[in-house]
Amino acid sequence: MRIDRIWRAAGAVALAVALGSAAEAEAPTGVTAIMGATIFPATGQAPYVGNVIIRKGHIAEVGPKARAPRGATVVDAKGQALLPGFFDVHTHWTPAGAPAVTPQIANAYIAAGVTTVNDFHQSPESWAPRRQWLSTLYTPHVNMTARTSTPGGHGADWADQNTTKWVNTPEAARQAIRELAPYKPDVIKAFADGWRYGTSADNTSMDVATLSALVDEAHKHGLKVGTHTVTVERGAVAGRAKVDFIAHSLQDREVDAETVAQIKQGGTSYAPTLAVYEPVKPGQKPPENPEDPRFKQSVRKFGYALKNVKVLHDAGVLVALGTDAGMPNTPHGSSTLREMELLVDAGLSPTEALMAGTANSARVLDLLDDRGTIEKGKRADLVLVDGQPWRNISDVRKTRRVFIDGRQVHGPGTTLPKANSESAMPTVTVKPLIDDFERADGRTQLDTLRTDDMDGGLDRTVQVSQVIEREGGGKALSLAARMSVKDDPQAGVILPLTRGSVQPVDARAYKGVRFEARGDGGEYRVVVNTLNGRWAAPVSAGAGWRTVEVPFSALKRVPGRGAGNGPWSGADLLEVEFAGSREGGRKLWLEVDNVAFY
């Protein structure tokens, strides 16, 4: 099972919440007074003892003379530090991280005091149901990030073109942003650097003209752009293209003065994601053989990463906070706090690390007028901790209370909505007809977007799926592919059963899937993707059209990563897929029509 399938299934599990819990998450109407805290305002002003009055989700008053209104909920914060809620501008809400289910990911962030994150992981088709789900949870503010890369580039070596737009010219870059705009992204990510950390062959990289056009078009739509950039050379390209922030460390060598100057001149900020690159992470044991070449390489790259963030910071480049949380061994929530510790290890002061995690990140995302500092009128995203983290950065781990939009979401007396403990989204039922390929807008009859599903890697199967005119009238789906040269090349088309493959479908009222097909005479597969793994059955199709019925009882579990466990239930379907494989370099074709449950 490829990682994109895992992410789609996990997204559906993650969105497993009762929509009826929305009332529990409505904005508070009362007044909260946090009294006697030592306030770190993140404005450049030194910490001071004062009070914060929260009304209607915002800071109504702040300062030593602010008084608790009669009837306010009073929080005695004497001896505690009050900071703006923390940011993480680079996360992936995926099952590869810990925790792996979205409500629990939200819990991990709010328990760590993280109140705003960028999620770099979801396809635009999934944003609407995800945003609806997030509105029912106690959760940080989650910015949905659209992904772009070059054909064959990092991030395009597995994903479909809804999840990651493929661009390699300025014109294509502008068109990609225009196509993404209706989904209302919050941020744009460009995989601009194809270096694979010296561990595998390099992917393609985005040239400066294409990246510049992408940034310019994004800015016209009011969108910030972050790049996957991990080499010094490509860091200079990011600066010349006026990228808003680099979302990784430059780690192939020490950064030179010319590159620093180009990054500064481009107004480009820097979020080094040190947490994901730390060679021996918290709780891990060092390798038994410290001379292992891969380990030595990771230590060397991490040394460059630490040194380069200090050099860039000292040169006046704004440092923000990102972690790449959700990647292996980079857990959600705690990695954000670890990142601040690593920034201090790199040579920043604790105060500078706190600024990276608050006001600097807010500035990078153009949110500083709304949050990121403790000032009158700002959104009341706040965290109370024991200690003095501007002196000892590890005190950020001593979380006492967390407020998002003025509501306490973590700490004594907090009761989380039921949705925060759920792990399976309520199922829906659908009509029998999945797709007859007659809609003019190119969507299925279930109002979902068909996506291509070929194998991943540098050499990917080349396929074209399109709706064609059928002899005798009507339309059908055509899949044509040239297989990549590898052991198990794949071509396929996915028909999601709900938008973004998010909400599971209960298909127990049906016996199976029926469709009409014709093909090149070879064998194909009907695949049903569920929350409990992938299930498939072989089918054949020759030159003439014929009707095929695949009963659910004929489906067999597809082994591999993310295969799931337990028997077929029929109550958690996400997608129906038509797929096939041929010998590397060979061609495949298949036409399908009138796909329905029966």
- What is the overall number of helices? 11
Strand runs, count: 28
Low-confidence stretches: 1-28
The best one-word shape is: globular
Major sheet description: 8 strands, mixed
| Range of helix content | 10-25%
Arithmetic mean of pLDDT: 93
Query: What is the CA-CA span between the terminal residues?
Result: 27 Å
Computed CA radius of gyration, to the nearest angstrom? 25 Å
In terms of structural class, how would the helical and strand content be classed?
A: alpha/beta
Strand content: 25-35%
Keywords:
598 residues; 21% helix; 8-stranded parallel sheet; disordered N terminus; alpha/beta
Task: Give the arrangement of secondary structure elements.
Layout: H1 3-14, E1 31-39, E2 48-55, E3 58-63, E4 73-76, E5 80-84, E6 86-91, H2 102-111, E7 114-119, H3 127-134, E8 141-149, E9 164-166, H4 170-180, E10 187-191, H5 208-220, E11 224-228, H6 232-240, E12 245-246, H7 257-265, E13 269-270, H8 274-277, H9 293-314, H10 334-345, H11 350-364, E14 382-386, E15 399-404, E16 407-410, E17 433-435, E18 451-452, E19 462-469, E20 475-482, E21 491-496, E22 512-519, E23 523-530, E24 533-540, E25 546-551, E26 556-557, E27 573-580, E28 587-597
Parallel strand pairs: 1-4, 1-5, 6-7, 7-8, 8-9, 8-10, 10-11, 11-12, 12-13
Antiparallel strand pairs: 1-2, 2-3, 5-14, 14-15, 15-16, 17-28, 18-21, 19-20, 20-28, 21-27, 22-25, 22-28, 23-24, 23-27, 24-26
Helix pairs in contact: 4-5, 6-7, 10-11
